[in-house]
Design brief:
The protein is built from four helices and three strands; from the N terminus they run H-H-E-H-H-E-E. It is α+β, with helices and mostly antiparallel strands. The chain has a single domain, classed as Arc Repressor Mutant, subunit A, CATH 1.10.10. It has a three-stranded antiparallel sheet. A hairpin with a 5-residue loop joins strand 2 and strand 3. The relative contact order is 0.15. Pfam families: HTH_39 (PF14090). This is Winged helix-turn-helix domain-containing protein.
């Protein structure tokens, strides 16, 4: 494969990656991780309840673990938070500190 073909292949891969990122009806792990990262752009933290109720992510701990593997420094704070029915439950609150490097999303 020559340099020109390699450049075209890379551009096609980037275009496919961008297309996947903007499909917000997709419920894949990739899309869920993207939703979490987008949330952190506008909010300082994310609780388990918020991830489930507002982002439709039923297992946020799994997605957070995957983001950590990809180099994101995400802290977990445990506390009692009220759910929609007003009951207190021990829940995680995640805070994105920074991106250290790692696998690309």
């Amino acid at each position: 494969m020559n340099k020109k073909d390699n450049g075209k292949k890379k551009a096609a891969q980037q275009a496919a990656k961008q297309k996947r990122q903007f499909n917000h009806t997709d419920n894949s792990a990739f899309s869920q991780r993207f939703k979490i990262l987008y949330w952190f752009k506008n909010n300082p933290s994310l609780t388990t309840e918020q991830a489930r109720r507002e982002l439709g992510i039923m297992h946020p701990a799994g997605r957070i673990k995957e983001l950590r593997k990809r180099g994101y420094n995400i802290l977990t704070h445990w506390d009692n938070y009220p759910t929609a029915d007003g009951q207190l439950h021990r829940m995680a609150k995640y805070v994105l500190m920074n991106r250290k490097g790692g696998e690309d999303e």
